[in-house]
Amino acid sequence: MDSVTRAEGTTICFGEMLLRLSAPAAEALFQHDRLDACFVGAEANVAVALARLGRPSALVTTLPDSAIGEGALDTVRRAGVDVRHVLLRPGRMGLYYLSPGSGLRQPAIIYDRQNSSFALTGAEAYDWPAVLEEAAMLHLSGITPALTPETHALSLTAMEAARAAGVLVSFDGNFRASLWQRWCADPAPILARHVALADLFFGNARDISLLLGTSLDNGDPQQRRAAALAAFARFPNLRHIASTHRRVVHSGLHHLSARIDTADDFFETAEIEVSGIVDRIGTGDAFAAGVIAHLNEGIEHAAQTGLALAVLNHFIRGDMSPVTSAELAAFQSGGGDVRR
Fold first, then answer.
1. Which residues are catalytic?
2. Average pLDDT for residues 36-59, to the nearest whole number?
């Protein structure tokens, strides 16, 4: 495939989908006899956000061969995501339970995803040459290797296949301590192997500190740049590092900025006050989608667009961004009145 066709190809998003069960806003889990349900997943969230922006995306995953799996499949299919390479296998759907934050009470997540259909599907089940045939980029995250030793090998196989096919690789660190602690006391070497295969890395100074065994303060702009330069020196395949910096006042008021680093340059946005937050889960995936969609237009535009999409997702219930390119442009142009 020539470089022009490759650049205009599809972003392949590989990872597990989950059923999210959340307490109603401002309630604790099981405070009352109701939980709200929706289908989610870090990589599926990125695929949906890209499709809503009009960018070609595809999801590669394994879902249970049941009405639950079909419901998850339909969720991403309706958004315009290519689902040709989604597998349906016997088994269960992974879950997570969300207790939304309220005021000074922090949000909390409990995972229930052991022995899911995805986690039990081996690397040999995926036809990576066929999946990557029209791909411009493979996007995956640190959640997949955190699940089990087998999914650790699975994510590496996918990344190695992408590099062999000349497909760019995007890796979001997405560190989940509660998942790693089930089987791995020191995930840094495993994550480092993944980052070494990436062209684009989503991670801040804290994530880079984990990889390198250092201590860098993400709150200090100078240390954010130092962290990026250290990562570029350690991982020569990296071309871009994208990150956000979040200051939390309380669950309904955050301050958010974004930056993208290259080995030679960087751009950091101004901080945006995000008040009246409805749901912050999935906002990092929206940021990733905005960056991926616009990175070929320069780091300044990509950082600003990723931040704008992330900010908007704070005011939408559920993990997945439904924002279209027209809605994103309207937000970036300013003004908060009704659009008619």
1. 285
2. 98
CA–CA distances in Å: residue 242 to residues 233, 258, 291: 16, 8, 8
Per-residue pLDDT at 231: 97
The 3 state secondary structure assigned to 125-164 is: HCCHHHHCCCEEEEEEECHHHHHCHHHHHHHHHHHHHHHH
- Tell me phi and psi for residue 94, to 5 degrees: -65, 150
Of the candidates 270, 223, 280, 278, the one whose C-alpha atom is nearest the C-alpha of residue 248 is: 280
Structure-token pair, residue 182: 């089930």
pLDDT averaged over every residue in the chain: 94
Half-sphere exposure of 79 (CA within 13 A, CB side): 29
Q: Which H or E run contains 201?
A: strand 200-202
Helix, strand, or coil here: 194?
A: helix
Tokens 């690789």, residue located: 169
Does 6 have pLDDT greater than 90? no
Q: Which residues contact 320 (CB under 8 A, 6 or more apart)?
A: 38, 40, 44, 45, 48, 49, 75, 79, 282
Does the pTM surpass 0.85? The reply is: yes
Edge-first strand listing for the sheet containing 108-112? 36-40, 18-22, 94-99, 108-112
Report the distance separating Cα 49 and Cα 134, nearest Å. 19
Of 94, 93, 157, residue with least CA distance to 125: 157
Instruction: Give the SS3 label for residue 173.
Output: coil
Q: How do residues 140-177 score in pLDDT, each as one tens digit?
A: 999 999 999 999 999 999 999 999 999 999 999 999 99
pLDDT (mean) for 83-88: 98
* Residue reference for tokens 């900010």: 311
- Domains within the chain, CATH numbers bracketed: 3-332 (3.40.1190.20)
φ/ψ bin of 323: left (φ > 0), alpha (ψ from -120 to 50), beta (otherwise): beta
Cβ-proximal residues to 338 (8 Å cutoff; 6+ apart), any chain: none
Q: How far, CA to CA in Å, does 232 sit from each of 51, 194, 236, 264, 284?
A: 30, 14, 6, 10, 22
Task: Report the Cα 53 to chain-centroid distance in Å.
Answer: 16
The identity of residue 66, as a single letter, is: S
